[in-house]
Amino acid sequence: MRDERKPRSTSRFNEAAERAAAAAGRLRAPRPGWSPRKKAALAGFLLLGCLGWGSFRKVPPGHRGVVIRLGHVTGESFDEGLHLKLPVLDQVDLMSVQIQKFSAPDMQASSKDLQTVQTSCAVNYRLEPTKVTLIRQEIGLGKGVHESTALQPQLQESIKAVTAKYNAQDLIAKRALVSQEMRQTFQAKLDHLVQGGFVVDEFAITDFQFSDTFARAIEAKVEANERALQAENEVRQAKAEAEKKIATARGEAESVRIQAQAEADAIRLRAGALREFPEVLKLDTIRRWDGVLPRVLAGDDAQVLLGLGGLSAQGE
After folding, report:
1. How many structural domains are present in the chain?
2. 224 and 270 assigned to the same domain
3. Which of 75, 109, 129, 150 could form a disulfide with 160 if both were Cys (CB 3.0 to 4.6 A apart)?
4. Tell me: the pLDDT tens digits for 19-70?
């Protein structure tokens, strides 16, 4: 009896163990993954998204986009805005067409009288929008490349060429003319590189630097000119004051002459009137009489006045 029970319990135990192992195996079994079809669909969707995103290129304001296909400049450029391009194959390089500033300090040259001159300039320039593809192909990309490759060398040559035409003193006295000639020469040299590619909008000479000896000579000459100008002004002022006094004296003399002439004319008129109307003199004498009769009279009017004297005595 004991031998028969023992195998039964063992078999039951084995069955329970097998069931537990099977259950544990089911719990540890990995979940089924994505099917190959789903993976392929996801990859295709991602690829299409990347290609779609790479098919557009945005060009910001003040720029142009130069299309480069497989490393070759196609000659096509994009204006501002959103544009379509070939994904992977096309590359769009942005180039600014806004006004940019280029400063060139202390560029050395020699004047006509062999004086060493250091000229500092400031230039406002821009890229011609229709020439950006040619500039990208011939010069390169970027402001730094343009300045180092085109602007700075050509400006240096322009300054040397123009400075050699003028004496050092004339560079200062004719600064506006020198600046205009430098700008024209600079523009011509840039056009020689890329015809119409770079446009010089403003050109200004900010400073001239000469040797110490020449600077002292110029300063001494300026001071001498200032002293001469001051002396000339003083002479001119003294002359003006003398002329003013002469004019005043002439005016006063003329005034006296006119007054004397007026008095003489009045006397002549009065004398003429007395000759024509002698009674006026008598009337004037009567108007001036103070009422006291004279004691002694002479002349044709004595009888009349004596008569008046007698009347006066009788009244007393």
Report:
1. 3
2. yes
3. 109
4. 665 655 554 445 555 677 666 666 666 655 555 556 788 999 999 999 999 9
